[in-house]
C-alpha cells in the first residue's frame, strides 16, 4: 500500500519569555506534570525513577492558570499569507490547509507545572511557544494578540481536560516562573525551505480524501468559539516490536487527516510517549507508571500487554527518534 509519510524532526526548545496571561480553571480535573530538567542538563536524559504520583497535578475549579506566551525559532513559523488570509484566520473562518493561500500558526504547549500566585496559593503554569516571526505583530495589534492567546488556550484544552475561563488578566511579568527546555517532534514539512529542519515528505500517490464528516475533521489553527459540548479525544490502540535493534511503536489513528498533522504533537522521552491530535486522539504511554495503572489505562484498547512488555525494555532512544505519519495506512509509526 502506498504511504503518505510526514517526516518528523526532533528539536530542542529553549523558549524566550514574551508575556504572561492569567486565567482560571472552570472544572475539576487532573493534568500531567512536566518532567523537571536540571539547569545545564541534556534534555534527552530524564530521571526515570520518578514516583507515579508526581506525574499528576490535581486541578480544582477556580484554580489560577498562568499561560506563558514565549518564542523559539525552532517552532515552525506560519506560512506566508496575505493580510486577507490572516484576517480570515483571526475571524475563525474555515481554513483549507491544502490551499496555499491558507494561513495558520504552529505552536507547542508544554505539560503543566506547579507554582503559586502572589498570595502563595497553588497555581498551574503552561508554556505556549510560538515562532518569533509573529512577535512584532502580536505586540502591536491587540486583536492579533487576543488571537494568539486564544490559540494557546485551545491547544491547552485539546491536550488536557482543563477548560479555561476567557476572563483573563495580564500580569506585569514576562513569564510566570522559569521557562523550561524540552524536546519535541515537529513535521519537517512545516519549516520553510530556508530552514535547516525543512524537508518535503515523499508521496508515492496523492491521497484523495473521501467524504469528510464533522467528527473526522480536526479544528484548524484559527480562533473559534468553543462549542458547549467539546469532542473528547480517544485513546488509540497501539503495539510495539523490535525492528533492526530499534523499538518500533505503531499507533492506530483511523480518523487522522493531513490537515490535522500541523496541529498535532508527538513528544518522546526516555520513558514516555505523548501524542495529541486535537479533538481526535490523546495517548500517554508512561512507562514509569505501575503495572496496575498501565493495565487500567489501556484495557479498553487491548493494549495493556503491549504497555507491560514495553515497560520492561530499554529506554527509548530520544536523540535518534523518528516518526512517520501514514495517513493512507491510518497509522503513526515511531522508531526510537
Attribute tags:
four-stranded antiparallel sheet; disordered N terminus; 336 residues; alpha+beta; five-stranded mixed sheet; 16 strands
Task: Tally the helices.
Answer: 5
Distance between the amino and carboxyl termini: 24 Å
Order of helices and strands: EEEEEHEEEHHEEEEEEHHEE
Give the rounded overall mean pLDDT. Answer: 78
| Helix-strand makeup class | alpha+beta
Q: Give the tally of β-strands.
A: 16
Query: Hey, roughly how much beta strand do the residues contain?
Result: 25-35%
Query: Helicity range of the residues?
Result: 10-25%
- Radius of gyration, Cα only, in angstroms? 19 Å
Low-confidence stretches: 1-5, 36-54, 93-98, 201-230
Biggest beta sheet attributes? 5 strands, mixed
Shape label? globular
Can you describe this structure?
The protein has 336 residues and is an alpha+beta fold. The chain is 14% helix and 27% strand. It has 5 helices and 16 strands. It has helices spanning 83-90, 135-140, 142-159, 291-298, 304-311; strands at 8-13, 16-24, 29-32, 56-59, 64-71, 108-109, 113-116, 122-130, 182-187, 238-243, 246-252, 265-269, 272-277, 281-286, 322-326, 331-335. Strands 2, 5, 6, 7 and 8 form a 5-stranded mixed beta sheet that branches. The protein has a 4-stranded antiparallel beta sheet with strand order 10-11-16-15, covered by helices on one side. A hairpin with a 2-residue loop joins strand 10 and strand 11 (246-252). Helix 4 packs antiparallel against helix 5. The longest helix has 18 residues, at 142-159. The chain is globular and about 50 Å long. Residues 1-5, 36-54, 93-98 and 201-230 have low confidence and may be disordered.
Amino acid at each position: 500500500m502506498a504511504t503518505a509519510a510526514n517526516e518528523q524532526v526532533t528539536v530542542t526548545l529553549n523558549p524566550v519569555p514574551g508575556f504572561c496571561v492569567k486565567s482560571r480553571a472552570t472544572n475539576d480535573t487532573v493534568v500531567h506534570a512536566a518532567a523537571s530538567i536540571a539547569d545545564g542538563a541534556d534534555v534527552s536524559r530524564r530521571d526515570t525513577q520518578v514516583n507515579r504520583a508526581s506525574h499528576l497535578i490535581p486541578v480544582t475549579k477556580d484554580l489560577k492558570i498562568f499561560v506563558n506566551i514565549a518564542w523559539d525559532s525552532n517552532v515552525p513559523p506560519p506560512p506566508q499569507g496575505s493580510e486577507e488570509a490572516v484576517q480570515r484566520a483571526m475571524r475563525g473562518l474555515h481554513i483549507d490547509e491544502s490551499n496555499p493561500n491558507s494561513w495558520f500558526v504552529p505552536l507547542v504547549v508544554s505539560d503543566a507545572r506547579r507554582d503559586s500566585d502572589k498570595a502563595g496559593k497553588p497555581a498551574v503554569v503552561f508554556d505556549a511557544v510560538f515562532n518569533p516571526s509573529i512577535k512584532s505583530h502580536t505586540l502591536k495589534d491587540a486583536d492579533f494578540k487576543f488571537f494568539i492567546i486564544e490559540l494557546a488556550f485551545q491547544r491547552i484544552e485539546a491536550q488536557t481536560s482543563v477548560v479555561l475561563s476567557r476572563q483573563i488578566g495580564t500580569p506585569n511579568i514576562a513569564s510566570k516562573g522559569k521557562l523550561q527546555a524540552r524536546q519535541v517532534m515537529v513535521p519537517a514539512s512545516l519549516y520553510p525551505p530556508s530552514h535547516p529542519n525543512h524537508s518535503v515528505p515523499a508521496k508515492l500517490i496523492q491521497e484523495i480524501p473521501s467524504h469528510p464528516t464533522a467528527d473526522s475533521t480536526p479544528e484548524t489553527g484559527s480562533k473559534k468559539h468553543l462549542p458547549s459540548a467539546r469532542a473528547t479525544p480517544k485513546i488509540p490502540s497501539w503495539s510495539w516490536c523490535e525492528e533492526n535493534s530499534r523499538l518500533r511503536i505503531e499507533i492506530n489513528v483511523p480518523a487522522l487527516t493531513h490537515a490535522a498533522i500541523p496541529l498535532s504533537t508527538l513528544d518522546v522521552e526516555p520513558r514516555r510517549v505523548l501524542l495529541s491530535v486535537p479533538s481526535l486522539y490523546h495517548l500517554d504511554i508512561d512507562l514509569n507508571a505501575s503495572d496496575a495503572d498501565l493495565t487500567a489505562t489501556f484495557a479498553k484498547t487491548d493494549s495493556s500487554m503491549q504497555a507491560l512488555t514495553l515497560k520492561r525494555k530499554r529506554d527509548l532512544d530520544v536523540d535518534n527518534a523518528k516518526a512517520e505519519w501514514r495517513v493512507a495506512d491510518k497509522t503513526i509509526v515511531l522508531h526510537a
